[in-house]
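Tutorial, part two.
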Amino acid sequence: MEVKLARSAGFCFGVTRAVELARAAVKERDCVYTLGPLIHNSQVVEKLAGAGIKDIKEIGYVFPESTVIIPAHGVGPDVMARLTELKVQVVDATCPFVRRAQDLAGELGAQGMQVVIVGDQEHPEVKGIMGCAGERAVVVEGQNQAELLPSVPEAAVLAQTTQPLANFQAVIDVLQGKTDCLKVYNTICHATGLRQQAALELARIVEVMVVVGGSKSANTGRLAELGRSAGIPAYHVETAGELKAEWFSGVRVAGLTAGASTPDWIIEEVQRRMKELGKVMTMEEGKEEANGIGEEVGEDKNTVWGGKAGISPAEEKELEEAGLPSFEPEMTGNGVPGAEQEVPEAVSEDEMKEAVEVRSLSPGQIVKGIVVQIGVDEILVDVGSKSEGVISSRELSAYEVASPQDVVAMGDEIEVAVVKVEDDEGRLVLSKARADAEKAWKNLQRHMENGDPVEGVVREVIKGGLLIDVGLRAFMPASLVERGYVDDLNKYVGAPLMAKVIELNRARRKVILSRKVLLEEERVLQRKEILDGLVEGQVVQGVVRRLTNFGAFVDIGGLDGLLHISEMAWYRVNHPSDVLSVGDEIEVKILQLDRESEKISLSLKQVLPDPWDRVVDNYPVGNTVQAKVVRLAPFGAFVQLEPGVEGLVHISHLAEHHVASTDEVVREGEEVEVKVLSVEPGEKRIRLSIREAKRETRRPENPQPGTQENNGNVTIGEMVGDIFENKQRDD
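Running the prediction step on this input gives:
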């Protein structure tokens, strides 16, 4: 008996990645767990357990500081959050295709979209996707369940990664009649489609099919269904020990395929055992024929129960209970069960071709693919063709890369250009750099015409400017990097920059960018927006940027306003540095606003309380208080009661005796005791007396008759002093 192996069988790249991550984790760490089986294959799980990787069902069994591996089918965000709380080391082995479905579900759920997931609602992968999508998400297994859903204005549909496209399309057809806007996201794994196509092609040229894989593996079970849909017996086994010799009775050619979680060593064991059983059955049938009994069993050995050759009625009943299709045998003209069997509509030939169509490629074509393997100097990309395409390191980017991992990661979806459909070694040769360049030229041309900025990453500093990666090599002169001069351009290396395209010449492969133009435009717009949002009298936040002798310039969100020295405080300020420092954050009031010249006058003191509002309460007439001499005048001394509140001690009130010059009695900076003679808050005037304050300290309890004292009446000299006081205050 000949055993034919399907051209696509066994481990997919997602499973391979998960196993490799698990093996690497157990080498580096002592206590390693997986949340449920890493993959749906008990033999592989047993081998991993032997290596020290424990399969646990609940997070509660995880010890602190241990390592937990997320299985290939992924988990929901609630599980990830719980692991974060436990502060364990997480190794995420989620298949990139599953991760993409989770991310899409999360984005759609966050938008409040009604999300429909096509798949097995009890499958761990579907539960994880469901958790990402949120409470409004629903799961349907097929079109019958989809028919039961209510109508909604808008919905999105995605699939379990192992779903047949025919079933996914059937659900889509139903949903289109239940919503005005349906967003479709095909999240079916490319490898799943190729494996299903290979199984269907093999089933058409063999007499019996064996599918190897875990009993709980969804994708393996579907491969067995495909075999049966082609009208031949198809058996699902986990190991070679489950094979039965009678399955191969009278069989000349048998087919073998395997699910995505089946390792090569199990496939090889099953293949070897199938050949052995084929030989045994050939020998036994030869003996039976020699003994003349072959004619008796000739019809029975080909009997087809329920359209599934080689399956007993008991087995058929189990299949029906499991929800698989069942059919009555169709009889030929001579009463013998025929070879033509009814094929279930869900996996008809035309639909299967559509579901697993292999992409036909041509040189220069731009296609999307998934990174399935990363090597030292090349990567493999699944583009839906018969085989993965290869990209060398030099074709990954327009710039030299140290390692492919610096550019791509496993599971990334990238655009690539087809260089050769088949090289000397029969490989599909691709280029990411050429696809990026083609896309970049079109993108740059469009942005230049529209005046829109583009984003690029600075790769290196060269003479005269920067080399920037915008999908191809672009140059930015040093004079166009900032609005002003830049001392060191190296600080931009590795950083993303937004810029405008100011020159583009594809023939000469010349691209010139300017960030300065963009910054200037942004500054103009920003200043206009700020000005439009300001009004006189408004109080705004500002930052002191510069001090001068006459004031300070304050940045109020992109615009500089002038805070004059006279508006810094309620008291006299000798220099702005006495009140402010560069970098201070302050509140200021807008006094004047000239939109045409963009000039803004600011005030600090007007957002502060006016101390003169409290002078009547703080300095009652007749009280004696402490004050500081701040300046001298020919007619008296000005003293400060508190910042912003000054009063005048007239020369006649400096001492008991006649004073010819103010500096005979007091000096600037001296602390003195004064008596409040009068308060005029409206005029911001307080009359004080040092003489009366001294009298208060030595006045006897019972003054002698005839003693003269000034009771606060204003003298002619004080009136003259008021005139000079007002003039000095105005100055």
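The radius of gyration is 44 Å. In part three we will examine how such features are distributed along the chain.
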